[in-house]
Structure formats: C-alpha cells, structure tokens
Predict the 3D structure of the following.
Amino acid sequence: MYDALVVGGGPAGLMAAEEMSRAGARVLVADQKPSVARKFLMAGKSGLNLTKDEPADTFCAHFPDWLHPMIADFGPAAVMDWARGLGQEVFTGSSGRVFPVAMKGSPLLRAWLARLAAQGVEFRTRWQWLGDGQFDTPDGPQRIDTPRVILAMGGASWSRLGSDGAWAERMPDLVAPFRPANMGFDVAWSAHMARHFGQPIKGALLCAGDQRLRAEFVLTANGVEGGGIYALSRPLREGAALVLDLLPDQSAEGIAARLMRKDSVGNRLRKLGLSAAAIALIQEMGRPLPEGMALAQLLKALPLILGGPRPMDEAISVAGGLRADVLTADLEMRNNPGIFACGEMLDWEAPTGGYLLTGCLATGRWAGRAALKGRE
Ligand SMILES: Cc1cc2nc3c(=O)[nH]c(=O)nc-3n(C[C@H](O)[C@H](O)[C@H](O)COP(=O)(O)OP(=O)(O)OC[C@H]3O[C@@H](n4cnc5c(N)ncnc54)[C@H](O)[C@@H]3O)c2cc1C
C-alpha cells in the first residue's frame, strides 16, 4: 500500500519523506512520540540555527569525507532556499550563522508538515519501531511492509524528545558506541563560585589540543557550557587540557606593566578589563595568585581543570551510530538492501552553528532520493 516507510519524524526523516513524496511515492512516516520533530522545535528555542553561510568547501570540512557528496548537494545556500520555499525568510548573523527571521522552529515546521500532507505523506505517531517492519502502537502490534524503508531515528541525547538511541540495541554489530558531542563539562567549583553561575566569560581565547578559538562560554552550577566549550568538545572529550588566554589582545609584558600599580589584586584585574566572573575564575583556578610577570602569564594561559563530560542525555548531539562501513554510498545498509539511514543516526559529529541540521537535512534528502532509484 505504501511505497516507502520513514521511521522517525525529525528533520532527516521529514526531508526523506519530502523527497520521495515529491517524486510521487506514497510515504508513511512513523514516530514513537505523540508528535514529530520535537528536538527540532527544542533546537529553535534559543534560535533555530539552520546553517552557516560560508563557502561549500569550508562548510564541508566540518564533516567526515563520506558525507561530503551529500553536503555538497544540499549545502548552506540550498538550505536557505528551502526555508524560503516554506515561507520562512532567513537572515545571516554576524558570525555567519543563519536563522529564520521568526527565530523559532514552529512556523517552519507548520509550513513543512502542511506541504508534506499536501504531497500525500501520512503520519502515525506513538508508533515505536521494534525492527523488521514491526511497531508497538496504542492499538497493539502493527506490521508495515514496504519495498523501501528509511531509518531516521536520531541520536541518543534528549531522550524525552524521542531521540533515545534505543534502536542501536537492535543492531549492535553495526554501530559505533554513542558519545556525547557539543556538550558541557563538569568542574568541581568551590562555594565561592556560586554567585557567578549563569555568567558568561567573553572575549577569551580557548585552547585545547591544536585547536584555538575565540568564543564565549558560560559558568554553570555543574561546570562550563556554551558555544566555545561545545566547539572544543571533541578534543576535550578525548582528554586535551583546556587553557584560556583571558586577554588575547594584550601581551604578557604589557599586562605585567599594568599590574605593577599599587592596588588590590581584584582592582588591578578589574582595571585590565576583566569581568567579575573572569576574576573569580582566575582566583579559583590560579590560587594562590602569583605577582607581576607570573600573574600576567597566568592570565595568558589559565588552565581550566575539567571533570568529565556532562551526561550524554544533556548533549546537543552525539558521536557514534551507524558506521560508514556498513552503508553504501547511497546510505543503504549493506546487510539489508532496501533499508536506508540518515541524520544523527549515522556515525558523524559536527560542531553547533548550523552544521548539525544541515547534515541531517542533506543526508535525509540523499537517502530519500537514493531509495527511489530504479523504482518501477
Ligand atoms: C537544545 C538543542 C539545541 C539545538 N540547536 C541546534 C541548532 O540551533 N542548529 C542545529 O543545526 N542543530 C541543533 N540541534 C541539533 C539538532 O536538533 C539535531 O541534530 C537534529 O534534530 C537531529 O535530526 P534527526 O532527524 O537526525 O533526529 P531527531 O531530530 O532526533 O529525530 C528522531 C526522531 O525519531 C523518533 N524515534 C526514535 N526512535 C524511534 C523508534 N524506535 N520508533 C519510532 N520513532 C523513533 C524520535 O521520536 C524523533 O522524533 C540542537 C539540539 C538540541 C538538543
């Protein structure tokens, strides 16, 4: 009865459904939650960063090689056109990140679901895939047999939104273990730090392994999180130390000269332009504080001692999932022809900044197109 079954109604699955239904296929989308795309809507809560407006080769470099053809085929410009086609004008922020003017995801999702319905896509919610076309549903077990299946069940973070990674237990030989990606890290703060929780550290240069970037991060009750930490989460997860240059535009000599003035340490640090939260961080990590040149050098290379990553369920995304070697270049499972996979289910990781959604949309589109190849 259906030409294709899509399991998982996140951005990857919806894009696969869009491609197939546009080509005239009868498509059923099944999702285990009461509504689709819950993580997509959550992503829009603090501004739905759809993509990054940068040249295709720079953009592609954030993905593993095996995804490059898919990203090249549906990169930043295509994502922006696609959003506009759904009536969502987009704008590019100062850092190149692209958002819908509405900022949140709900207007785009509403328009998208209406277009899918108009193309004949049907939806079943509260349908949990159990493998091999079988579902647990409110009406009891159901079986759906279709000539092609697209698996788009997401990663293993934010399980309350449906992305619980439980599918991986059904194919343990095919998956790389999940690890958190784009996540915060624990820090064993002393009680002095409590009044700075929620405060950003701005303007610092963050260094981990061979990566260095200027970006903001936030002190939290558990540790640290935010853009700068997420961007370095891979080397940090793999054990690199985090070192901060809190005054990247000033030399150690210049800082040392300004530190010579007679005043309390706190006042001298403040006069260097450091925020109260940054000063607290220096006192927390650098205690007992040295004087003169040694203090200047500490401000240029302050070690921030991290505990482990925050739990995977809090992570923005995950590494791990279906491995490249178990899939063809068409994202079809080598051991199960007719079954394709896409989105965060696949074993790749990319930074925040619009790369994740673009990667999910591009692989969903690729899988949907590939699934219809050779259709009678
Ligand atoms: C707080 C937050 C903010 C984010 N912000 C951004 C951002 O601004 N920009 C960006 O690029 N990315 C962002 N992301 C990441 C982005 O949301 C994800 O990468 C993206 O949603 C993954 O898409 P997907 O379709 O692969 O999987 P998901 O969106 O996880 O969808 C998978 C779907 O499969 C369903 N499912 C799972 N198992 C089963 C089963 N057994 N049976 C049936 N259905 C099942 C789930 O219910 C779910 O609906 C953010 C993530 C979070 C958590």
Summary: The first helix runs from residue 11 to 22. The chain has a mean pLDDT of 96. The two ends are 15 Å apart (CA to CA).
